[in-house]
Amino acid sequence: MNQPPDASPEPTAWSADARWALAMADAAVVLLDPDATARHENAAARRLVRRLANAVDVPDDPSVSAWPAGEAARELLALVPDGAWDSACVDGRWRGQVSAGNPPLLLEIKLFCDLAASPARRLAVFGDVTARVEREDELQRAQKKLAGTREQLLQAEKMASIGQLAAGVAHEINNPIGYVHSNLGTLQEYTGALFGLIDAYAEAMADGDPASHREALAAAREQLDIDFITGDLPPLLKESREGIERVTRIVRDLKDFSHVERDAPMRPADLQQGLESTLNIVWNDLKYKARIEKHFAPMPPVECHRSEINQVLMNLLINAGQAIDERGTIVLATGAGDGEAWISISDSGCGMPQEVIDRIFDPFFTTKPVGRGTGLGLAICYGIIAKHHGRIEVSSTLGVGSTFRVVLPVAQPGGATATDPPGG
Ligand SMILES: Nc1ncnc2c1ncn2[C@@H]1O[C@H](COP(=O)(O)OP(=O)(O)OP(=O)(O)O)[C@@H](O)[C@H]1O
Ligand SMILES: [Mg+2]
Question: What is the CATH number of domain 260-409?
Fold first, then answer.
C-alpha cells in the first residue's frame, strides 16, 4: 500500500477521501460511464496494464502515472472479449482468458453497478488471476492425487490387516479341517467294521441253516465293536458337518472382506451379521484373551459399503483385544433409533488418558511397539465412517477400559441405495 498517489485528474464530484482511497487501493479499479466507456482508472489499474503488456512488475515506473487519464482503462477494456461485459453485468463477475501463452493470461472482472444514481455508475475491479487459477488447478490436482493415495492406503491397510489375520484365520480353518480329517479316518475304520459285519451276515444267509450262525454273528458283532460304532457314528458325522460349515463360514466372511465396493452404490446391509462375521475372522486373536458378551437389539438394514464397515469393526475389535493384557471382557452391543443405527465395542482393557484420546484418530499415531501398530487403524475407521455420514464416539477410563461406538444413519442423505436386492 505504499504506491505513489494517482496523478491523473479525479472526477470532481468525489471527496478528497474517496480519491485518496482509490489511489491507494491495491486493486485495479476502473470507473465506467453507463455506456461502458472508461471515465477514470486508478494507479493500480495502470500498473496492471503495464504488467500485462510487459509481463513485469513496474509499480514505481513514473511513466505509468504519467499516462493520460482513461488510457489504461481503455487498454484494459480492450482486453475484455465480446460478451464478457454482458455476463459480468448478469453475474457481477467474469473470469476468462485474455491472451494465449503458457500459461494463458487470465483476467477477472468484478462489476459493481449503481443504476439508481444519476448518472448511473459502474465500477469495474480487474485482477490478473493467472497465478491464482494455476494454484487452484495445482491444488485440485494435488487433492485428486491425495484422494488416489488415500484410496491406495485404504486398500493397503486392508490388505495388511488381512495379511496379519491370515495366520489366525489359517489356524481357525486348520482346526476344524484337522478334526474332520481325523473323523474321516475313524469313519473309514467304522465302515470297514460295518462291511465286515455285512459280509458275515451274507455268509450266514448263503448257508442252508442261517440260524446256526447266530452265535458266530454275535461274536463278530462284539469283536467289531458294532454297538460302540452305532453310538459314536452320528455325533461324529454331526461334528464333521459342523467343522465343514465353520470353514465355509470363515471363507465366506473372508470374501466379504476382500470385496471391493468403493465405486458401487451403498446398499442396505445387516450390520449385526457384519459384526458376527468380523468376530469370526478375528476370533483367533481374541479367544484366549476375552470373553465376548453380546447385547444385540434389533436394527434395520443400514445403507453402507458392507466390507468397509466390517473393516472398521475389525480394527475396533483388534484394538479392544490388544488393549486387554491377560484376560478380560469385550461387550458388543447394537441398537437403533431416530434414523440411526449403532454398534458399540467395549473392552475391559487398559483405557486411555485424555492426551491419547485427543490423538487416536491422527494418522500414524500409535502407542504400540514398533511392528505391532502402524497407527493407521482408527484414522482409516474415521475416514470410512465420515464417508458414511456417521460418527465414532469414544469414552475411556484409564485402567478400566474403553468404549468405541459407531453411529451410522440408516439411510444415506441424498439416497445412495442401489436398486439391487439388499446384501448382494
Ligand atoms: N480399545 C482401546 N483401548 C486402549 N487404547 C486404544 C484402543 N483403541 C485404540 N487405542 C489407542 O489408540 C491408538 C491408535 O489406534 P489405531 O488403531 O489407530 O492404531 P494402532 O492400533 O496403534 O495401530 P494399527 O491399528 O495401525 O495396527 C493405539 O495405539 C492406542 O494407544
Ligand atoms: Mg489398531
Answer: 3.30.565.10
